[in-house]
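ok so heres the complex, two chains, lmk if somethin looks off
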Amino acid sequence: DSGVTQTPKHLITATGQRVTLRCSPRSGDLSVYWYQQSLDQGLQFLIQYYNGEERAKGNILERFSAQQFPDLHSELNLSSLELGDSALYFCASSSRGASGEETQYFGPGTRLLVL
Amino acid sequence: GENVEQHPSTLSVQEGDSAVIKCTYSDSASNYFPWYKQELGKRPQLIIDIRSNVGEKKDQRIAVTLNKTAKHFSLHITETQPEDSAVYFCAANILTGGGNKLTFGTGTQLKVEL
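and the predicted structre for the whole thing:
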């Protein structure tokens, strides 16, 4: 158990709908990252938040958005869902290393199926 | 942006043999290289990492080497066991505008056969 929690574990929805995925970081971690893992794209970095502020952005679609709240939990919002959005969505949190790099620990993931 | 290539995509070894997985990265500013193990349907788990100022690191049966000049790094697993069977991902981290971007390789499916 990494200490990172994610809800829900599974989500089934229809095309065009909107869903919200939730993540709680490890105690003491200020950074939260979101990743998408699909069979054909591997693990893709979406976005990073640090203490409530967006810090880095990857290949996140405009239909997707995220935020980090004062209690440090984060939500990933996916809207106008398409079949291709079906994937595992992981959240990770991190502690900062001596050189500024951050060791990331992953949550159990949310499996999203869009029908 | 950063690009990480990982080879091989699949690797089958006999129990007790060694396994080696290799990765190359494109951005010389990358400063941190973690390796993750992912079992089917589960979270990626950090197994070892190395920072850019270190050439080699070992933790029991697992070791990682880094060649910054050639921009490649490798994972070595010795005395493989059936429970080592999983998908292994390498990654390269780059600092960017106050944040971190971790780019993953495409994964290696390791199968340890009895």
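quick notes: The radius of gyration of chain B is 14 Å. thats all i got rn
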